User: Fold these one by one.
Assistant:
Number 1:
Amino acid sequence: MTVNDRIEELRAAAQSAIEATTSTAQLDDVRVRFLGRKAELPNLLRGVAELPPQERGAVGKAANEARRQLEHAIDDKLTALAASELQHRLEQDRIDITLPADPQPQIGRLHLITRTQREIEDVFVGLGFSVAEGPEVERVYYNFDALNFSPTHPSRLTTDTFYLAPAQDIFDPDSQLLRVHTSPVQIRAMERQPPPIYIIVPGRVYRPDNDATHTPQFHQIEGLAVDEEITLADLKGTLEVFARAIFGPDREIRLRPHFFPFTEPSVEVDVSCFNCDQGLMPDGSRCPLCKGTAWIEILGAGMVDPNVLGHVKHNGYDPDRVQGFAFGMGIERIAMLKHGVPDLRLLYDNDIRFLEQFA
């Protein structure tokens, strides 16, 4: 028997085997038996080079043609068998539409800013504060005048505040703007409610800034407590509880003199660094978070200025009878410090790779 006769014999045997298969699994066995690495037909192709020169062309051509015919036959048979098996499964299988999806659908989660806001709210609600809200489109009166901002304060300029109509008089109490802080709600809340009052005011605020630590829109939480015999010690104790709840039970805070138009005296509040030991990392290098100072600035605060209370004196806020404290913090800043976020803009980029870290 010649080599060509053997090739034809193998082709015919394989064709018969392909036609006889009744499942895709059987078809795969046939493919391996006749076209696999150890099968005779591929080995004949590999051995063409060992044949006499006058036989190589004819044998190679016959072997290649036989292989192509069998591959096409297998592909056609696989298509037919796969369709038949699918139809059989559709006829036999019963789908229970009450079963849960597989895989389970991904459940959404709160954004890091929202999570941080709710953590802060939980701390102060636990201390007896209630949550108040107010409009984001505010009047100059509530945003500046009633909070003791002087007429020449830089924040009133159009370069520092989004006015809704730049042509309007920025000193007109009724001119409208996007609020630059949530402090206006303090005045609105005191107009609605006589003392005592203990509120926090979360919400969006707007300023024309945009860099690694500022965005045109961000979130703040203001706090206000007005009652009889409230002192700066009450403010320090309240903020100390907050710092330990958010940053860890070993945190300490310190107050540094500062200036805000609506508080007197005013303070900047620092928390002891939770990333290092007295400003130094384990390897002896300077802490990148606190810059080696062992303290991190987290918010501004102070005792409510009597001039602010004077705007709501008619509702029981007589500066000679009641006093209080106020504080304000950026929610994004708290989130960045607690979770080590290097750039504020990451919180707004909607990058799944970043957001999934806080799942």
Number 2:
Amino acid sequence: MHAKTLCTAPRNFILSTLLVLVLGDAGSLTAQVIDIPLQGAKNTDGIPAPWELRVKKGKADFAFQEVGGPAGEPALCLRANDSSFSLNRKVSIDVAEFNVLSWSWKVDSLPQPNNNDQVLQILLYFHGGRVLSYVWDIVRPKESTWSESIHLSLSIKVIAAETNTEKGQWRSVVRRVDEDYSTVYGNAVRYLEGIRIQSNSQYSHSIGAGCISTLNFRRNRG
């Protein structure tokens, strides 16, 4: 891995857009899958566009691996050493239509147990300031849900999508985002406008490390 520290991070973490339809032409109504690629031309910070780096505390330590995933797909590996940072991108996805989100992830090092540090997090930013966060948590039971109040303009609902403490093993996750959203917010899912991949260890002043493979959304009307 290599360390990257953002010196002039803009306040708005979502700065650019790239949407890839892997079945059919871009914008085709017959497309069944939307990939969220982790690879691409890198900027001066070593980050593939359209991803953008945001550092909340400490230094960002990350690496993009072209064939790092469990099936040889690209992966993003993050290492938080008493730090908090994220990779962010803007998207435009109708999650009522592309309602199933899947990815794989693994942990290589876990922060000291506490309620605020999660080694891996995937945050979905919906229209109107609502956020659905899937985390790898080692304190709460799997499928636990709770609220966070980090920013006055955002409502953040969290789901413990994984709690396993086994290190170095890829684990696959499939979520019905529309159903998860309805469960925690009580109404129909809104339009998805941004995605954040994050790692935290600043509260326990310890080290957490792990990797996440390419995310994809697909249709499932069953």
